[in-house]
Amino acid sequence: TPAHFGAEKNTPLYVYDTSGVYTDPKVSVDLRKGLPVVRSAWIEERGDTELLSGPTSKFGHERLNDPETAHLRFELIRQPRRAKAGANVSQMHYARKGIITPEMEYIAIRENQKMEEMRDLWKDQHPGQSFGASIPDVITPEFVRDEVARGRAIIPANINHPELEPMIIGRNFLVKINGNLGNSAVTSSIEEEVEKMLWGIRWGGDTIMDLSTGKNIHETREWILRNSPVPIGTVPIYQALEKVDGKAEELTWEIYRDTLIEQAEQGVDYFTIHAGVRLQHVPLTAKRMTGIVSRGGSIMAKWCLAHHTESFLYTNFEEICEIMKAYDVSFSLGDGLRPGSIYDANDEAQFAELETLGELTKVAWKHDVQTMIEGPGHVPLHMVKINMEKQLEDCHEAPFYTLGPLTTDIAPGYDHITSAIGAANIGWYGCAMLCYVTQKEHLGLPNKQDVREGIVTYKIAAHAADLAKGHPGAQARDNAMSKARFEFRWEDQFNIGLDPERAREFHDETLPKQSAKIAHFCSMCGPHFCSMKISQDVRDYAAQKGVKEEEALLLGMEEKSKEFLEEGAAIYHEV
Ligand code: IRN
User: Fold this and answer.
1) DSSP run (H or E) holding 332
2) 180 Cα nearest atom in ligand 1
3) What is the ipTM of this complex?
4) pLDDT digits 0-9 by tens, 471-506
5) Which of 6, 384, 414, 450 is buried most, with the most CB atoms less than 10 Å from its CB?
C-alpha cells in the first residue's frame, strides 16, 4: 500500500453534517420550544434590523387569537424582525459591499474537507492528469463572498430563522440536495411533518421544502421552522390559493403579497415564485403530451387565462424584490412550464420560460436579492446537458436547482432511481442543488421511509457529481471506505457509509455473529473467493519474502491460498 494509506494510519474522517444538534447525544431538543437561536447574535450585531412591534404579522396575529387553532400553536412566540427602513439585509448586498459576514465564514469552514491533502493524494495516483478546475484547494471566506457577490451562489438565510446553520448553494461548492415534505388536504398531521423534516436532515437533506397545501399551513410551517437547522423553502402561492378556497381566478396580488410577508416574518429562507409563467407562454403548452405539470405553474396559467392578463407575479416583480431584501429571502424562480414527460422535454414552452427567468434574475440582482433557478422535470439522458448549458447562459450563472430530472417515464414505484440518474448527470455538469423525487412520485404522498430512501438516493447522486466534478474534498470519504473495505474493518465500513443502519442490517442478514465483524470475507463470495483477501495476502507474502507483488503471485500463491482457505473455512463454519 502507498505509505499514506498505511494500515495503522486511520485518521478521523469528518463528514458534512446536516442534522444539527439532533445527532449529538449530549443535547436533547424540546420540539415545543424549538432549537437554540445560534445565529441571533450575528443578525443583531449588524444593526440593520428592528423588531416588529406586534407579536407577529397581522395574519399571524389573527391566528394567535383563533381558538380553533389554539391546540396547534407553537409554545414559544418569537418576535419577528424586519430590515430598518431603507436597509437591504441580504447576504448578497453585504457580499457586494465587500463585507464577509459570519455566515460566510461559517460556510467556508463547513465546505472545507481536507481538500489540499486530497488533491495531493489524487495526483500521486494519477500523474499528469488534471483535477477539478474551478474549485480551489481551500474554500476561504473571501471565495464564498465573491461567489455570492457574482450571483453564482446563494446563502438562503432569512433574518427570522436564527436557528439556522448557514449553508451555500452554488456550483463551485458541494452539490446540495433538497427534500420535499408537506401535508395535503387528504392526509398527514403537523407531528408527522415535523418528524419527516427531522428524518430528512438526519439522512442528509441540505434544505427542506414545506409544500403543505392542506389545513393549518401556518402552524405546520412554524413548527418546522423553529426546529430546523437547515434552510426551509416554500411555494407561497399554495397558501395564497388556500386563502381563496382553491379558486385560482380569485387570487389577487394583495393576497399573494400578504402571504409573502407572513411567511417572510416566520423565517422562510427561500420562496419558489413562478413569475416566469407569462400569459404569452401558455399557448406554447397546447401541443404537449402532459400540459403543465407544475402545481404553481398551473395555478398561474389558470389565473392568466381567466383574466386574460399578464401574471401578477411578473408585473409586481420589483415589489416582490423589496419584500425579499427586507428579510433576506432568496428567490427560487419556479419552472412552472417544466416538461412533465419525456415527450415534452426541452420544448418551446420550457425554454421560453427559462429566458424569462434569466431576465428576472437581472431584476433581482439589481436589488441585491439572492436568486436560484428551478429546472426540470422529465428529460432523457441525451437531452440533459443542454439544459445545464442553456441555464448558465440564459440565467447568467445563477445557481440551477432541478427536480431530478427523471430520465424515463416507465418505472412508477422507482422514480427515485429514474430521477437520480438524471440528477447525477446534471450535477456533474454544474447543477448546484438537486430536488429529490421519491419512489412515491406520481403515486401518492411519501411517508417517512420514502423520505429516507429518497434522501439517501439523492446523496448518492450529489456525491457522484462532486467526484465527477473533481471536487477535491469529495474523495476523502471514498478513500476511507475503500481502505476500510480492503482491511475488512466492517464496523468502519458501516459507519462511513451514507446509511450505516441498512449496511449493518444487510451484512447481519447472513452473518449475524460478532465474530463475522472481524472476518476477512463476507457471505457474498465466502472465504474461498474473496478477491480483497487474496490480494492482501499477496501483499503480505511479498513483504515477508522481500519480493515484488508480481513475483509473489508466482512464488507462493498456491501454498498461501491453501492455508487461507482452511483458515477462512473454519470461521465460516463457526458463524
Ligand atoms: C425544483 C425544481 N423544479 C421544481 N422544483 C420543486 O418542485 C419546487 O422547488 C417545489 O419544491 C416542487 C413543486 O413545485 P411546483 O409543482 O409547484 O412547480
Assistant:
1) strand 330-333
2) 11
3) 0.99
4) 877 888 898 999 999 999 999 999 999 999 999 999
5) 384
The rounded Å distance from CA 236 to ligand 1 centre is 12
DSSP 472: T
The set of cell numbers assigned to 265 is: 416574518
Set of cell numbers at residue 205: 437533506
Cell triple for residue 167? 449553508
Q: Rounded to an integer, what is the distance from CA 176 to the centroid of its chain?
A: 4
CB-neighbour burial class of residue 572 (10 A; exposed 0-12, middle 13-18, buried 19+): middle
Average pLDDT over residues 44-55: 86
For residue range 369-383, list pLDDT tens digits in order: 999 999 999 999 999
Alpha carbons 340 and 350: distance in angstroms, whole number: 10
pLDDT digits (tens, 9 = 90+) for 505-546: 999 998 888 888 888 877 777 777 778 777 777 778 778 878
- Asked if residue 103 has its Cβ within 6 Å of ligand 1, the reply is no
Residue 372 near ligand 1, beta carbon < 6 Å: no
Please tell me the distance between residue 294's alpha carbon and the centre of ligand 1 in angstroms. Answer: 7
Sign of CA dihedral 375, 376, 382, 383: negative
Ligand 1 atom closest to the Cα of residue 435 is 1
CB 62 within 8 A of CB 214: no
Residue closest to 61 by CA, chosen among 320, 258, 328, 323: 258
Residue with the nearest Cα to atom 1 of ligand 1? 403
3-state secondary structure (DSSP) of residue 175? coil
Give the residue whose CA is nearest to atom 9 of ligand 1: 272
Residues whose CB is less than 8 angstroms from the CB of residue 358 and which lie 6 or more positions away in sequence, other chains included: 373, 394, 395, 396
Neighbours of 377 (CB within 10 A): 26
pTM of the model: 0.91
From the list 455, 334, 465, 469, the residue with the least C-alpha distance to 402 is: 334
> What is the secondary structure of 232-299 as a DSSP string?
EEE-HHHHHHHHTTT-GGG--HHHHHHHHHHHHHHT--EEEE-TT--GGGGGGGTT-SS----HHHHH
Q: Which grid coordinates belong to 354?
A: 427559462
Cα–Cα nearest to 230, from 516, 35, 66, 27: 35
472 CB under 6 A from ligand 1? no
228 alpha carbon to ligand 1 midpoint, in Å? 20
The H or E element spanning position 509 is helix 500-510
With a 6 A CB cut-off, is 353 part of the ligand 1 pocket? no
| Interacting residues of 144 by C-beta distance below 8 A, sequence separation 6+ | 100, 104, 105, 107, 108, 111, 153, 155, 168
* 118 Cβ below 6 A of ligand 1: no
